[in-house]
Amino acid sequence: MQIRIATYQAQALIGAPKIHTDLLWDLTFLFVGLAVLYFTGVFFFRNRISSQTKKLKLRKDEFSPMISEFLFYDDNASKDEKTRYIELKLEIRQLLKDDFNRKSLAEILLDLRKDVSGDTQLRLFKLYKDLGLHKDAYQKLKSWRWERVSKGIMELTQMQVVESYNLITKFINDKRSTIRKQAEIATVTLKPDGITYFLDTTRYKISEWQQLKILDVLRNFEDFQPPRFKAWLTSTNRHVVLFALRLIKYYNQNDVNASLVVLVKHKNDQIKTEALKCIKEFNVFEAIETLEIVFGKILWI
Amino acid sequence: MMKKKLLLAEDDELLSALLNYRLEKEGYQVIVCRDGKEVKEYLGQDCPDIIVTDIMMPYFSGMELIDFVRKEMNSEVPIIIISSAGNEENVLNAFELGANDFIAKPVSPAELMVRVNRELSKK
To answer: What secondary structure, in 3-state letters, does A220-232 show?
Structure first.
């Protein structure tokens, strides 16, 4: 009998809760409505993106012969070619009145920039400015949206618009990290002495990856005369000190012995390690005494 | 004078359009193929005077193309490969397979012209 009661009680415990049927119907309609809305949204945006892509592809097909003609136009061309060139110029100016066309053309030029080098690349940069596409990038710098500002900086950097240097350096200490990092690369890329301005100005951390990217930019400069990086070993930003030490080692600037000895006593372990690497690299014998004081004689056994 | 036939195998539409324009301006008859299938189809019908091919291509890579031309077609047509910088291993393999020259991406159209003219003058 006791077992029967227990079974009965257990069944009561797992019984379905009483919910009003109307509420269930309301919830069903609500979720079906949300699902319809969701799928409509996905369908709408998907279609919009694919139609934009198609439109862009058509524009690319339309613009690429024009761009080729502009890039390979020779001043000694025949009369017919000159006439065709002038006609093209007028046509493209007309097309550029449309925002989408401007956007497409800028994208094409940015794409091409990665694939061509030498004289053609220089002509590409000139064409970008001649068509006034850099002004659109300037507008992007004024946006409140970080991704637009970042894209603007990237565009101006890739198309080597040196005139934008002063506009971009303002973003070096921007609190939004993506913009800041883009501005750092731009500052160093656009002018060979940009590295000096960057190291003088930055208040933020310079990540290892960012250091590598900046070094890569410097390495690719033709006839780059590196500044004496020891000037930044006394910076209040420890990341600048660290980066300066790495640059000193990379450019083999071995006139920094006294500064290196001082840095061995630095409170930051990373700076200490980097200073030790430089001391080893440059065989700084005058550092031995300080090393013994800081690390003790045990190190030399 | 008959124009020299140049087969340009490059899947990047913008770059191929640009190189096509430059090569045509130089006086070549350019046949542009966007992928390996198109290349194979063309080579089944005709043989160009020179081939300029990207290493990375859909369906049939530049390597396979060199191998196909040298072994299956048994042709000595000059082949210039286009390869991204830092792709040394692929470039060396391409030379082993029988490529004549290579040009690194980003491509300088002027440099490509010099290389194409040089290869053709060797014939």
So the answer is: CCCCCCCCCHHHH
Average pLDDT, integer, range A46-57: 92
pLDDT of residue A208: 93
The model carries a pTM of 0.80
Chain A contacts of B106, Cβ < 8 Å? Answer: 114-117, 121
What are B83's strand-pairing partners? B104
CA-based torsion, A162, A163, A164, A169: positive or negative: positive
Average pLDDT, chain A: 89
Contact B13 A64 (CB under 8 A): yes
Mutation pick from B14, B82, B111 vs chain A, by most beta carbons of A within 10 Å, is B14
> Do A146 and A178 touch, CB atoms closer than 8 A?
yes
B22·A118 Cβ contact <8 A: no
ipTM over the 0.85 cut-off: no
Q: List b or e across A199-220, with b for residues whose CB sees 16 or more CB atoms inside 10 angstroms.
A: beebebebeeebeebbbebbee
| pLDDT band per the 50, 70, 90 thresholds, residue B83 | confident
Q: What domains sit in chain B, N to C, each tagged with a CATH number?
A: 5-117 (3.40.50.2300)
A287-291: Cβ within 8 A, 24+ apart = A287/A257, A287/A260, A287/A261, A290/A261, A290/A264, A290/A265, A291/A264
Cβ partners under 8 Å of residue B70, min gap 6: B76, B97, B98
CB A246 within 8 A of CB A211: yes
Q: Which residue do the tokens 């913008």 mark?
A: B14
The count of CB pairs under 8 A between chains A and B is 55
